Amino acid sequence: MTDLGSVLLSFTRDDVDIISRETGFKGFYRLDVLNLRHRLFNGGWGPVLRRELFVRHDAVCVLPYDPWLDQVVLIEQVRIGALEKSDNPWMLELVAGLIDTDESPEEVAHREADEEAGLTLRSLHPIIRYYPSPGGSDEFVHLYCALVDSRGVGGIHGLAEEGEDIRVSLWPREQAMQALHSGRIDNAASIIALQWLQLNVDALRADAGAQP
Length: 212
Hints:
Protein name: ADP-ribose pyrophosphatase
Radius of gyration: 20 Å
Number of strands: 11
Structural class: alpha+beta
Number of helices: 4
Pfam families: NUDIX (PF00293)
Binding site for Mg(2+): 96, 112, 116, 164
CATH superfamily of the largest domain: Nucleoside Triphosphate Pyrophosphohydrolase
Shape: elongated
CATH architecture of the largest domain: Alpha-Beta Complex
Family: Belongs to the Nudix hydrolase family. NudF subfamily.
Number of domains: 2
CATH topology of the largest domain: Nucleoside Triphosphate Pyrophosphohydrolase
Largest sheet: 8 strands, mixed
Oligomer: single chain
CATH class of the largest domain: Alpha Beta
Distance between the termini: 60 Å
Order of helices and strands: HEEEEEEEHEEEEHH
Cofactor: Mg(2+)
């Protein structure tokens, strides 16, 4: 009987033959058109496939959490991807931004927290790195939880030159989890981060110590 795990681990990018790659569109994002073929699990090569690839900068997402008040900071802004499938395209989300310079993911996290929420991050805790939609996009997400002092946080933030209109709100952790379970919070990064927080909240609060 074939060990499927060993077969999967044997494949690398060398087992994909990119015959051609052209840019079909280039704006803020880019769409590439590829013709390719790849090796098959049963041996040999598959047929030539035409695929469109949505090319994006890698992203950084941060869940700001106040361990002393046991509450999270969430942002809210309109998202065009939700226009046709949601009655409310203003989504509750994490602080987030793209890595479009030579900044590290950690530097982007601190910058975006200041720009989008007026927050200073006290410490960053890596959660996971993942591909949100690898069937058609090369975006790679660096996901964090950050400890913050949320006293006085709120209001409208964002960069006017980028057309940002971001509302910042404070949520008791349990209320945020209720919003997740009810479907009010329905984007992947926020769901993953809040679930991680539920699993790790006791350790985070214990390590935080007394409020500074």
